[in-house]
Write a structure and sequence with these properties.
alpha+beta; 8 helices; DNA-binding; homodimer; two-stranded antiparallel ribbon; 258 residues; disordered C terminus; 6-stranded antiparallel β-sheet; 8 strands
Chain lengths: 258, 258
DNA sequence: GGGAATAATAAGGTCAACCATAAGATTTAA
DNA sequence: TTAAATCTTATGGTTGACCTTATTATTCCC
C-alpha cells in the first residue's frame, strides 16, 4: 500500500507536521527549517506535490494532503517513540534526543515501530512534551499557547518544547526550561525582543508533564536546579518565542489564536 | 576522528567482515553478497581502497585494512546489538532480525550504540549465535566448523547461523535449525549436493547457545517442535553448506581447516 | 599450452537530491 | 503606487552509487 518514502521526503513531511498540521507553510519557511536553499525546497515541493503528498499554492505556501498527513504522522510517531526509548531506557541526554531519534526514524519498519510502542507501554507524549500520533494517524492536540502569546506576569507551566535543533535544546536544558517546569513571564520585549522568565518549581503534576518532572528530578540528583527554587532567566532576542508551548497554570488568560 | 561513512560503505565493510575478517575476498563474491554487479563492486572497491579501508590485490581479491577492520567491527557491533534488542525486547520474528537490524545500524550514533550495549547487559552473542565485537573492536572467535566440513554421522550442535537473507533464515526457522539445536548429519552428498540432518533436542546448554534454546522453548509453546523429539530434515542442494556453523558435540572429530 | 572462467577497465547512462546564479512573478507594506 | 521582500522558474552543475555493454587481462585447470 504505502510505498517506501525516501529519507528526504520524510524530512519534508515531518517538518510540515512540526510547523503545524493543517497549516499553510511558506516554502521559504520549510527551506529554512530543513537547512536547504529556497530553490531546492521548491524543486522538492514540486516532486512531493506530484506524488500527492503536498498541495502547493504558489506564492502562498504548501499544506499536507490527506495522504501526506498520514505519512507525516507516521514519521512523527517513529521519531517520538524513539525519543522515549532513548530517554527512558538508554538515558541519553535530553538535548540530543531529537537528533539521535531522527536518524533512527527513517530506518524503522512498521512492525518495529509497533513493537516498540508496545515495549514502551504506548506512551502518549515524547520527552519534549509533544504528543505521539497513534498508529491510526490520530493526533492528540496540544492544549497550550505559544510562549510569544503569553502576557507578562503570567504564571505558566512548560507543556512542550517545539524546538528541534540540538543547540537550542541544550540551551533550554542548561537553564532547566523543560516540560513540567513552572515559570513566570517577567518581561517580554515586543518584536522578538528578549524575554525574561522567573523559574519556580512545579507543584502539581499530570500525565503530560510526568516526563518533565522526572527529568527535573534526574537533574537535581546531579545538583542542577536543586537548591535554587527560584532563578531568573533571560532569553536572547528571537530565539525562544516560537519554541516553547505553555499551559496556563494559575492565571486565567484566554488563549489567543495562533 | 572517524568520519561518518556512507551506508553503502558500511555495507561493503560489513560484508567483508561477515565473509571472514582477515580473509581475501574475491570482488565477485562481494558483489554477489551485496546484490550489485561486478562492475559496480569494482568501482566501489576502488573508492574504498582510496579511502584506505580496503586493500585490493587485482585478480586476487580484497582484504580489510586495519582502519577498515575497525570500522567493519563497529558496523557488526551495531547490527548485532540491534538484533538482540529486537529479539529480546521487541519480540520480533527471528528470521527478520537481520534485515530489520540492518537498516537501524546505519542510523546509530556511537553514544546510542554504547548505551544500547549497557541496556542489553553487554551481550556477547546475537540471536543468530554470532559474536558481538567489543567496543574496542576486539572480536571473540567462533569455535565452530562450517557445516560443509562436518563428516557424516557426526552429532553436532548449531553454534551460529551465518546466513543473512531473510528467506534463508525463514527456511531455517521453519525447520527449527537454530543456535543451540542438536543435529545428526545423516547424509551429505558431495559437491554442494543435498544434506540430510536428523534433529534432536539439545540436552546441555551454555552461554553461547542460550538464545537458541530460548527460541526453541518459545516455539514449543506454539506447538512447533515439541512432541517431535526427532525428525529428519533434508536441505536442498547448495543452500546450507556455507550457512551454518556447528560446534562438535559428542563426536570427536578434529576440525578441518577452513 | 591453451581455453574457460574470472577479474578488471573503459565508456556512457540514470537517478535523487542537492547547489549557484539569474531572471521573472506576486505579495506586502510604506 | 511603488519599492522591497518573497516566491517561482530556468539553466546548468555536482555527487554518490548504481546500471549496461564491450574489451582486455589474468588465473586456473585439463
Amino acid at each position: 500500500m504505502t510505498v517506501q518514502l525516501s529519507e528526504s521526503t520524510e524530512m519534508y513531511l515531518k517538518a510540515m507536521a512540526e510547523l503545524g498540521v493543517g497549516d499553510v507553510v511558506p516554502v521559504g519557511r520549510l527551506a529554512g527549517r530543513l537547512g536547504v536553499t529556497n530553490v531546492s525546497a521548491n524543486e522538492m515541493v514540486h516532486r512531493l506535490t506530484e506524488q500527492g503528498l503536498l498541495s502547493h499554492m504558489p506564492y502562498k505556501g504548501v499544506t499536507l494532503t490527506e495522504t501526506g498527513r498520514t505519512a507525516a504522522c507516521s514519521v512523527l510517531r517513529r521519531q517520538r517513540l524513539w525519543e522515549c526509548f532513548l530517554y527512558d531506557h538508554l538515558h541519553i541526554e535530553w538535548a540530543k534526543l531529537y537528533e539521535l531519534a531522527c536518524s533512527l526514524e527513517h530506518a524503522t519498519a512498521p512492525e518495529v515501530t509497533e513493537a516498540l510502542a508496545v515495549f514502551l507501554g504506548d506512551p502518549k507524549f515524547c520527552p519534549r512534551g509533544n504528543p505521539i500520533p497513534a498508529a491510526d494517524g490520530s493526533f492528540a492536540p496540544l492544549h497550550g499557547v505559544p510562549l510569544r502569546y503569553v502576557p507578562m506576569g503570567s504564571i505558566v507551566q512548560v507543556l512542550a518544547v517545539n524546538a528541534t535543533e540540538t543547540d537550542v535544546l541544550k540551551y533550554l536544558q542548561e537553564r532547566d526550561i523543560l516540560p513540567g517546569r513552572e515559570v513566570t513571564v517577567v518581561e517580554a520585549a515586543p518584536m522578538e525582543g528578549p524575554l525574561t522568565l522567573r523559574l519556580g518549581w512545579k507543584r502539581r503534576c499530570d500525565e503530560t508533564t510526568r516526563r518533565g518532572i522526572e527529568h527535573t528530578r534526574r537533574l537535581a540528583r546531579f545538583g542542577i536546579g536543586d537548591g535554587r527554587p527560584e532563578q531568573r532567566f533571560r532569553a536572547p532576542p528571537g530565539r525562544l518565542h516560537f519554541l516553547v508551548f505553555f499551559r496556563y497554570w494559575e492565571s486565567a488568560i484566554s488563549p489567543m489564536k495562533r
